């Protein structure tokens, strides 16, 4: 006897020792994998942030070019109207120009004749440029230019969109629209990154800023005082890349400041311009920062949990035995109590409590479903019905006592309430073409549990008979 106990003790000790070693190895491996996962997840989150920055820049360009195309299309229409009138003084065209001018982002519209004369909406004419300057604009055809002096007001710089007026294949005049830089920001560009993003549109011809969120129109982009965080990149090379029509992104900060911004720049197709957006790093990397913080908390919490787990391991072993015994009383397919559990309950509970409800449930058509669609479909039906019963009465009160039969016990539920509840359950099951027969019985004082079950079963058979009579199918 002593040898047997010693052997058992040694086996138990060995089991515990191996469990501790396995736990230490598990913790070490999990921490290593988690650190690697943390690194890769943050790296991927950063890539997604950069992709969002790039996509946002494309969206800004798309929005700009969409509105620019709309304005240019309207100018084309006006040019077509003017081309039909040989004198280019059609009153309808003038009125249409006036209406468009007051409703579009374009602030002024005018017509340039080959001799450099500007024709205004009120039909007044004024010599504003030499013929050679006109020829240069006409040679470029439809185009957007960078900052120029306004045709009507030399004190303000504007952006011009030129559209030729053609007659018989020859350019006879140039229609133009003037847009103030402030109009471009107000009418063409939506807020991005919650209004934290800044925008510059750079003329690639001379490197000057055409539009700026910070009012830097007319300045040279190269004069902005920024330095890259990446020592391998130089500000003058970035400026050259922008002017050359390149695209890219990087982190930069103003001279003498600690905080930095992410730049993303891309060329436009519609004009010889490049768009540069600037966003504070905390806005660009918000997702990555949040991910990193959450994962650090996760690692901390995991370390605490593993410490608790290590201490809990021995008691968990004993609990697992109890859990195995408990699962022995659960039906593996439906998650309800099984017949063994039911019979044990019947054996230990002879007399029912007054008011105890017993519901006998039988699934209609299970055998037919198994024969026509296979047992998998039948199992799905059983699981769905069991889920409905467990959801309404709790898993511990539902027993699967046969292939397609369930018994449910409940307290403090009136029969009328149970009838209404099962009416709803039946309606829900019918949506999936599932049907059940139900018998409900409520125990009187002193009534035996077995008698209560038989009473519920009898009522179930009555309900089942009525179902098959209505459906003209053979009773199963």
Structure in a nutshell:
By secondary structure, this protein is α+β, with helices and mostly antiparallel strands. The chain has twelve helices and 16 strands. Helix 1 packs antiparallel against helix 2, helix 1 runs antiparallel to helix 7 and helix 9 runs antiparallel to helix 10.
Oligomer, anyone?
Answer: single chain
Number of strands: 16
Alpha plus pi helix count: 12
| Major sheet characteristics | 6 strands, antiparallel
CATH fourth-tier homologous superfamily of the largest domain: Reverse transcriptase/Diguanylate cyclase domain
Write the layout of secondary structure elements.
Layout: H1 2-84, H2 91-103, E1 108-112, E2 117-119, E3 125-127, H3 131-139, E4 143-149, E5 157-167, E6 170-179, H4 181-188, E7 198-203, E8 209-212, E9 226-228, H5 235-243, E10 248-254, E11 261-267, E12 273-280, H6 281-284, H7 286-327, H8 339-348, E13 357-364, H9 366-373, H10 375-393, E14 398-400, E15 405-410, H11 415-430, E16 435-442, H12 449-471
Antiparallel strand pairs: 1-2, 1-6, 2-3, 4-5, 5-6, 7-8, 7-12, 9-10, 10-11, 11-12, 13-15, 13-16, 14-15
Helix pairs in contact: 1-2, 1-7, 9-10
Descriptive notes:
With 476 residues, this protein is α+β, with helices and mostly antiparallel strands. It folds into 4 domains: 13-51 and 287-327, no CATH class; 64-179, Beta-Lactamase (2-Layer Sandwich); 191-284, PAS domain (Beta-Lactamase, 2-Layer Sandwich), CATH 3.30.450.20; 339-471, Alpha-Beta Plaits (2-Layer Sandwich), CATH 3.30.70.270. 51% of the residues lie in helices and 21% in strands. Strands 3-2-1-6-5-4 form a 6-stranded antiparallel β-sheet, with helices on both faces. It has a 6-stranded antiparallel β-sheet with strand order 8-7-12-11-10-9. A hairpin with a 5-residue loop joins strand 11 and strand 12. The protein starts with a helix and ends in a 5-residue tail after the last helix. Residues 1-10 have low confidence and may be disordered.
């Amino acid at each position: 006897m002593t040898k047997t106990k010693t052997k058992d003790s040694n086996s138990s000790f060995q089991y515990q020792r191996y469990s501790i070693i396995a736990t230490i190895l598990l913790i070490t491996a999990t921490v290593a994998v988690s650190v690697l996962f943390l690194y890769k997840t943050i790296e991927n989150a950063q890539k997604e942030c950069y992709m969002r920055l790039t996509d946002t820049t494309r969206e800004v360009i798309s929005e700009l070019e969409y509105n620019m195309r709309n304005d240019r299309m309207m100018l084309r229409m006006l040019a077509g109207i003017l081309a039909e009138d040989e004198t280019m003084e059609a009153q309808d065209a003038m009125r249409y120009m006036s209406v468009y001018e007051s409703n579009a982002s374009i602030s002024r519209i005018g017509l340039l004749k080959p001799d450099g004369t500007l024709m205004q909406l009120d039909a007044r004419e004024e010599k504003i440029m030499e013929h050679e300057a006109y020829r240069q604009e006409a040679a470029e055809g439809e185009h957007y230019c960078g900052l120029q002096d306004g045709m009507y007001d030399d004190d303000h710089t504007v952006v011009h969109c030129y559209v030729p007026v053609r007659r018989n294949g020859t350019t006879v005049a140039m229609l133009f629209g003037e847009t103030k830089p402030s109009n471009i920001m107000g009418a063409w560009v939506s807020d991005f990154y919650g209004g934290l993003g800044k925008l510059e549109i750079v003329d690639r011809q001379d490197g000057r800023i055409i539009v700026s969120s910070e009012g830097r129109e007319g300045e040279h982009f190269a004069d902005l005082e920024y330095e890259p965080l990446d020592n391998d990149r130089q500000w003058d090379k970035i400026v050259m890349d922008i002017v050359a029509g390149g695209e890219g992104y990087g982190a930069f900060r103003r001279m003498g400041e600690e905080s930095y911004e992410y730049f993303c720049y891309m060329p436009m197709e519609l004009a010889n311009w490049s768009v540069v957006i600037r966003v504070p790093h905390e806005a660009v990397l918000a997702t990555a920062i949040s991910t990193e913080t959450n994962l650090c908390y996760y690692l901390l919490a995991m370390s605490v949990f593993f410490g608790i787990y290590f201490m809990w391991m021995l008691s968990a072993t004993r609990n697992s035995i109890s859990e195995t015994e408990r699962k022995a009383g659960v039906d593996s397919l439906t998650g309800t109590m099984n017949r063994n559990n039911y019979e044990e309950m019947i054996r230990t509970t002879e007399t029912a409590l007054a008011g105890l409800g017993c519901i006998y449930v039988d699934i209609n058509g299970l055998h037919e479903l198994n024969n026509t669609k296979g047992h998998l479909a039948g199992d799905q039906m059983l699981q769905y019905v069991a889920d409905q019963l467990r959801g309404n009465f709790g898993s511990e009160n539902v027993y699967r006592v046969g292939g397609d039969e369930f018994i449910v016990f409940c307290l403090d539920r009136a029969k009328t309430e149970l009838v209404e509840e099962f009416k709803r359950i039946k309606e829900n099951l019918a949506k999936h073409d599932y049907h059940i027969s139900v018998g409900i019985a409520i125990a009187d004082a002193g009534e035996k549990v077995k008698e209560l079950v038989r009473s519920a079963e009898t009522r179930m058979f009555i309900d089942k008979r009525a179902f098959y009579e209505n459906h003209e199918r053979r009773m199963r």
